[in-house]
Each structure stands twice: as structure tokens, then as C-alpha cells.
Amino acid sequence: MDHILSPRVLGPIQELFSEENIDQVNHILLNQCWKQLPGCEHWGPEQIERIHMAVLKLSAGDLDELDHAVALAKQDWRDLLVAAGFANDPEAHRTWQPKPTNLDYHLLGVSLFFRD
User: Fold this and answer.
1) Over its length of 116 residues, how does the chain's per-residue pLDDT go in tens digits?
2) Coil, strand or helix: which one is 15?
3) Does the model's pTM come out above 0.85?
4) What is the DSSP letter of 24?
5) What are phi and psi of 49, to 5 degrees?
6) Which among 19, 36, 72, 114 counts the fewest CB atoms within 10 Å?
């Protein structure tokens, strides 16, 4: 089975990570955080997206934190869900909204400097 990321996972990746890191994040999720997880070998994109969203949430847009979250998932992905706040509600990941970290404020027309 070819693994692809669900559309619900692709959006937060683009919001959390800089453009130059997006391919790396996709690669990590596809090749280190899917069939490598116990019991997830045959899951499809929609089944694994809860775990992927938990990894993204804990990463907060930082590659080192992404690696830590993936390591936790490999150890026991249920602990990852607990850490992300997704354990008690199987739909919680669907309502989580990442806080964008790669915004270009200049393009948005927002001035970060206040003048008197």
C-alpha cells in the first residue's frame, strides 16, 4: 500500500513549518511515523491522521520537537495522544487548529513596529 498524508494533515504542516522544511516533515511522517508504529502497519491515511496531528501539535513547528514526538509515538503512540490531549476524544484532532509559525507579516500588511 502506498502511503499518502491525509489532506487534514497537510494543512497544519504548511501552517507550522517553513516552506523549506515541508518536504522533510512529510518524509518523516510517511517514513518514520506510520508503518513503524506498533499496530499501525495497515492503517490508511484517515486512520493514522490522529497520530500525525498529535505529532504536529507537540512539534509546534520545530523539527527537533517533531523528532521527539515521533520518538514518543514509536515508543507508545497512546502516550503521544495523551500528551497532545487527543486521547479521550477520538475526534479531538479534527478540531485542533495550529498556531501558524511561518507567517510572513510583511505580506499580510501587518506592521510589527508601533510608532508614536
Assistant:
1) 467 999 999 999 999 999 999 999 999 999 999 999 999 989 999 899 999 999 999 999 999 999 999 999 999 999 999 999 999 999 999 999 887 665 554 445 554 444 44
2) helix
3) no
4) H
5) -65, -30
6) 114
